[in-house]
């Protein structure tokens, strides 16, 4: 499976958004693979690499002008949208992408519970979007180290933890569990 081919399918033109997506996704991929090499070499490195490249593909349809997204959908929906895009691509191209679709759905924050979706009135279907497999957890974790806005450099762990705290103790606890799982400190 060629993740760049899929990205080019949805982002055929060389645009600032595609460049930003590729830069961010490569940063997440490289961080995830570095963690994998140190803490979890038994994981599927090809799934991790391609999944990291595809995890944010849904930003294409979202509205977030600060990060060059000029679509119409709320940014919080980009994971669900990306999953839908990959499932449709899989159907029309005769390929299996379900593992990648689940990565898209489950990487936002430290994952989202159905209760959190309802409580915050998030504009996505109210169900659990928690990373389940080790590969999903690894990509979710690696993604937190990089932003698509402002400073694109890797964030320090304490800054990430501080920003996670604004979403409450449960998301921070999930993030800390992922850090412990992969010996990230």
Automatic annotation (TrEMBL):
Transmembrane segments: none annotated. Residues 22-145 form the HD domain. It holds the Pfam family HD. CDD domains: HDc. SUPFAM superfamilies: HD-domain/PDEase-like. This is HD domain-containing protein. It comes from Victivallis lenta.
